[in-house]
Amino acid sequence: MKLASLRNGRPDGHLIIVSRDLTRFASAGRIASNLQDALDDWSRCAPILKAVSDQLNNREISGMVFNPEEALAPLPRAYQWIDGSGYMTHLERVRSLKGSKDAELQQERPLMYQGGSDSFIAPRSPIVVPSDDLAVDYEAEVVVVTGHVPMRPTREEAANSIRLIGICNDVSLRRLVVDDLQNGFGFFHAKPATSFAPVFATPEELSDYWWNSRLNLKVRISVNDNLYGQPDAGKDVRFDFVDLIVAAAQTRELGIGTIIGSGTVANAHDDILPLKRDGIGFGCIAEARTVEKIRIGKARTPFLKEGDRIRIEAIDRNGRSVFGAMDQQITLLGK
Amino acid sequence: MKLASLRNGRPDGHLIIVSRDLTRFASAGRIASNLQDALDDWSRCAPILKAVSDQLNNREISGMVFNPEEALAPLPRAYQWIDGSGYMTHLERVRSLKGSKDAELQQERPLMYQGGSDSFIAPRSPIVVPSDDLAVDYEAEVVVVTGHVPMRPTREEAANSIRLIGICNDVSLRRLVVDDLQNGFGFFHAKPATSFAPVFATPEELSDYWWNSRLNLKVRISVNDNLYGQPDAGKDVRFDFVDLIVAAAQTRELGIGTIIGSGTVANAHDDILPLKRDGIGFGCIAEARTVEKIRIGKARTPFLKEGDRIRIEAIDRNGRSVFGAMDQQITLLGK
C-alpha cells in the first residue's frame, strides 16, 4: 500500500491511503489519526490499511482525487532522521569538498549523521533558504521508515523492522559544510529541513523493485526541466538498508518511526552535464562539479539559486512515478 | 507549573501536573493526551494546566501521590534534540580529548549537535550500554523546550519561545567520541539515548531561579553516593538559551517541542575529587580527569562501570530538588 498525509492545519496532517497509480485516495482517519499513530500500532493498523488499499486499487471504492499539492511529507515530522552513506561514489566525489579523512574506514562501515526531523518540507512547498549564496544543493536519496529496533539488532531484526520506503531531498548548504565539520561536532547548519516525495510505500507494494534491502528504481532529477540525473538506486550500493539500520543501532535502540536515509544515490560513470537522454548524471550538484573539474578543468554547473525549480521522483521500468514527485522552488527567507 | 509524563504503556505516556514540592499530582488527561499534544496547542492548554496546578499547590485538590519511579522522561520522545555548548569551561577541559580545532571560533558562536530524540531514558530506568569499556560518562545539562521558532529569529522571539525548563544527562561514550569526530560527520555512536529528570517547569514557576535565559540553580551530581559536582548553572555561562536558540535557527525553523541543551554545566575552579562539602566539582567525569592530569599528573577518577549509580538533580537555595532526581544504574545490554 501507499500512504500519504494531507494538510489539515495540524502538524501531523491527515493520514490517507493512495492508489497505486497515485490518482485517488481514501481517508485513513477511522484507522489512525496520523501516520505516526499508525506506526505506533502497526500490527493492528497495517492489515486494515491494506484492506482499504486493496479496495481502492480494485476500484471497489472510488476514493477522491489525490492532489500532491495538498500533501505534506508522509511523516510531516518524525522522532528520528538518520542519514547514512550507502553509495561510495558519492563520498568519493565529494570527499575533498567535505574534508573527511579516512577513505578506508568509510568502506568498512557507513558514516551517519543525525538530521533535523522536527519539520520536513512538503513535496510541493518551496525550499526556503536564508540566502542563495550558501551553495544550495539537492541530495536525492532513498529512505526507509522502521518500527522499533533493539540495540545491536541481528540482520534479520533489522530487515523485519522496515515498514515503509520513500525518497527525499536532503537539502544541503555546501558553503556551510566545511564550517560545520571544522567545528568538530558534525553537520548542523549545512543540513536544513529535508523534503519528501508525497507517498511512502510498503515493501510488498514495491514487489521486485524492493529486493535485498535496496530500491531497484531510477531516481530522476531535473532542475528547471533540464535532466541532471537518473541514477539507479539499486546499483553501486556499498551499504544496503540492513547494513545502515544495524550500524545505526550499535549504541542505541531506534524508536518507532525512525527514518533512515541511504545517502545521495550515485552510480559510477563519467558523464557531465548537460546529460544525454540515456545518461546517468548526478544525485547532487557537488558531484557534477567534481566530475567537471576532472574532465574539463573547472566546475561549471552552478548551485541552486532563488527561483530554480528542482524536481525529483523515482521512476519504474514503465516510466511511472512510484512515490510521486517533489517539485519545489528555491525561495529566499522573507520573500 | 510542573509537568511530567507517567508510564501508561504508550510511547508518550500520560501527562500529569505535579505539585511544586513534587509530592502529589493531578492528571492532565482531560486537557491533553500527552505533553507534545499540549505543546502543539499551548495557548489553549497552558492556562488550563496552570489553573489545575494552582489548585494542586493551594490544596484545593488533593491529587495523588507522585512516584518518580513511575515517571517517563517528561517528553518521552521529541521531534528534535539539539545540544549546544553554553559553558566554555567544559569545552576547554575536554578539548584535547575531543580533538576539536578552533578554540577562538567556539568563543564566538556555540557549537551544536543534533542528538537522538526518538526514545529518552526515564529518570529511574537503567542506562543500558553495549559495554562498559567505552568510557561511559555522564553530562549534567540544563534544557529548555521551545514552541515554534522561525528561521533567523530575533532575540525576543527566541526568549518568548521558551515553554519549559528541565535537566538531563547527556550520556556519552567517550571512547567513541574521537572515532565519531574523525569520521567527519559528527557525534553519533558516542551519544546514545539521553536521560531526563522527572519534571519540566515553566519559566514563571521558577521565579528568580530563571533569569536572563539561564537557570540559577546548582546541579548536584553524585556517583554511588559520592558527591562529584554541584556547579551553578547560572554562572560562567558563555551562551545563554537565547543565544543557543538563535544559533540553532540560523538555517532552519525549530518545530514545536524542540529541546535545546546547554551543554555540560561547568564552573571554573581547580577542585579535584573526592570533593569537599562546599566544593564545586564536575558536570562530567572527563573534566574531572583533565583537572587530575594537570594537578596530580594522572587521571584517576574512573569512568562509569556496570552497577554504578549516578544521581543528578537541581537544588534550590533551601536544598529542595526542583525537577526531581535522575537516579540510574549503569547496566549492560542483555543483562
From TrEMBL, chains A, B:
Keywords: Hydrolase. GO terms for molecular function: hydrolase activity. Residues 1-77 form the Fumarylacetoacetase N-terminal domain. Residues 81-329 form the Fumarylacetoacetase-like C-terminal domain. This is Fumarylacetoacetate (FAA) hydrolase. It comes from Pelagibacterium lentulum.
